[in-house]
């Protein structure tokens, strides 16, 4: 069956994450968004792991469903148009901080497990290394290879995937504290790494410029810190909705089963370009090179972003064998742009968002596949045009850099006025 999976999430126990993140909240937003399979996040955290064991029921194929009370209470607040089954996969993220080859390395990895027993085993090993209770994304003084060993020894079906592989501060290929290859990070164990997460600031096109990743599958996850941001990146599968179904599709990179990904526009990610946010310096990598990668304002090294690292490590000028993917802008951001209001939390945007999914179905279907005419009928001509532009990639975005998200513009003010005028005659006129 065809389904969407968000494979990188967090709980309310992770640093800087929404205090409302619970299985119920995630299930609800899974329905709003149209995501069938969600990662649990944070299974290393003792309180969250207790909650997972209490709220989730194993369905015998490596995946879990929320218990009946949760589903019943969620269905009361989710419109019928969005009702669907939502399943969970056990997942966590570990922040490894260690020194290797005379440099401090800070690398985040995702870990996946098929059952509670495996999680218990992983947690008991990791608890010997550091504190699992202070942060849902524990910071451990452990080498990536040692972490991989623990994962491999816990179960034949537990996997490690480097997270948001290119971001500067906490990633395997990051400019600040990463490596120049998988081998440099994992040594003899590299063969056990078969996938990386692209992260918000890179997309498959960029990753496929580097031949060393040819055998590596590119997966996506939202890494969202609140439920309303889930699915901003996600994977589309057409395979058995089981733990092994998902992982064999990923391992084999079988594109009839792992159909592709939904991606942020990489420019919108917080680390696409280089720069210094405090000094208001925003550079394309070639401009950084012209300045020896130093900030002209403060003189310190620039934060070198994802594009910079892709350009440094890649060995092709055009991408090869790129998987299918669709860049998306979250629906509430598109609505805010259409309504010309700042902030997706405004009442007008929220009302429009819920009215749309009530009428048309889940957000990711509206963004990717519901016919434009149907969107125009439910949400107006301007929104339909916005979604058409998102689907064709005709949007203008000021790139994100040094931790600042990029800024999206779908319409110029002049265009909006013009389109609104064209929209007028459709409305009945008294005159
Ligand atoms: Zn991370
Ligand atoms: Zn500076």
Which helices and strands, and how do they pair?
Blueprint: E1 2-6, H1 23-33, E2 37-39, H2 46-55, E3 56-58, E4 64-66, H3 68-77, E5 87-100, E6 103-113, H4 116-127, E7 139-140, H5 144-154, E8 159-162, H6 182-186, E9 195-197, H7 204-207, E10 217-219, E11 234-238, H8 243-252, E12 258-264, E13 274-276, E14 281-283, H9 285-290, H10 306-313, E15 325-328, H11 331-339, H12 347-360, H13 363-368, H14 372-379, H15 381-392, E16 396-398, E17 407-409, H16 413-423
Helix pairs in contact: 1-3, 4-5, 11-12, 12-14, 14-15
Would you kindly provide a written description of the structure presented here, covering whatever features stand out?
It is a single chain. The protein has 431 residues and is α/β, with parallel strands linked by helices. The chain has 2 domains: 2-267, TIM Barrel (Alpha-Beta Barrel), CATH 3.20.20; 330-424, no CATH class. The protein is 34% helix and 18% strand. It contains 16 helices and 17 strands. It has helices at 23-33, 46-55, 68-77, 116-127, 144-154, 182-186, 204-207, 243-252, 285-290, 306-313, 331-339, 347-360, 363-368, 372-379, 381-392, 413-423, and strands at 2-6, 37-39, 56-58, 64-66, 87-100, 103-113, 139-140, 159-162, 195-197, 217-219, 234-238, 258-264, 274-276, 281-283, 325-328, 396-398, 407-409. The strands form 5 sheets. Strands 1, 2, 5, 6, 7, 8, 11, 12 and 15 form a 9-stranded mixed β-sheet that branches. β9, α7 (204-207) and β10 form a beta-alpha-beta unit. The longest helix has 14 residues, at 347-360. Mean pLDDT is 94; it is low at 425-431. Bound molecules: zinc ion (2 copies). One zinc ion (ZN) binds at residues 93, 108, 163-164, 170. It comes from candidate division WWE3 bacterium.
């Amino acid at each position: 069956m065809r389904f969407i999976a968000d494979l990188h999430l967090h709980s309310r126990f992770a640093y800087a994450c929404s205090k409302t993140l619970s299985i119920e909240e995630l299930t609800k937003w899974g329905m709003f968004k149209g995501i069938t399979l969600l990662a649990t996040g944070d299974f290393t955290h003792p309180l969250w792991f207790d909650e997972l064991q209490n709220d989730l029921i194993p369905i015998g194929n490596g995946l879990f469903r929320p218990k009946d009370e949760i589903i019943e209470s969620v269905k009361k607040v989710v419109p019928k148009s969005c009702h669907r089954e939502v399943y969970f996969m056990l997942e966590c993220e570990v922040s490894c901080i260690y020194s290797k080859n005379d440099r401090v390395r800070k690398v985040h990895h995702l870990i996946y497990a098929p059952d509670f027993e495996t999680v218990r085993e992983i947690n008991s090993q990791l608890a010997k290394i550091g504190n699992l209770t202070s942060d849902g994304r524990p910071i451990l003084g452990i080498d990536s290879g040692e972490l991989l060993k623990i994962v491999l020894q816990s179960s034949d079906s537990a996997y490690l995937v480097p997270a948001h592989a290119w971001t500067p501060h906490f990633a395997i290929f990051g400019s600040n504290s990463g490596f120049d290859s998988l081998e440099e990070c994992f040594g003899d164990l590299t063969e056990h790494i078969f996938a990386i997460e692209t992260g918000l600031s890179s997309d498959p096109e960029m990753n496929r410029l580097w031949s060393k990743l040819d055998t590596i599958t590119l997966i996506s996850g939202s890494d969202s810190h609140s439920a309303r941001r889930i699915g901003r990146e996600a994977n589309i599968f057409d395979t058995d909705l089981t733990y092994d179904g998902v992982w064999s599709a990923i391992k084999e990179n079988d594109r009839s089963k792992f159909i592709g990904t939904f991606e942020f526009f990489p420019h919108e990610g917080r680390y696409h370009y280089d720069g210094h946010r405090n000094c208001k310096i925003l550079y394309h990598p070639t401009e950084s090179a012209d300045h020896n990668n130093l900030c002209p304002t403060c003189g310190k090294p620039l934060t070198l972003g994802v594009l910079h690292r892709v350009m440094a490590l890649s060995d092709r000028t055009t991408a090869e064998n790129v998987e299918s993917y669709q860049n998306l802008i979250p629906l509430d951001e598109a609505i805010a742009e259409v309504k010309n209001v700042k902030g997706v939390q405004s009442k007008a945007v929220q009302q429009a968002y819920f009215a749309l999914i009530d009428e048309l179905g889940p957000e990711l279907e509206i963004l990717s596949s519901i016919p434009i005419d149907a969107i125009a009928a439910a949400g107006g001509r301007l929104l339909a045009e916005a979604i058409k532009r998102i689907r064709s990639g005709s949007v203008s975005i000021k790139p994100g850099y040094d931790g600042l998200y990029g800024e999206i513009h779908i319409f110029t003010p002049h265009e909006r006025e013009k389109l609104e005028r064209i929209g007028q005659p459709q409305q009945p006129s008294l005159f």
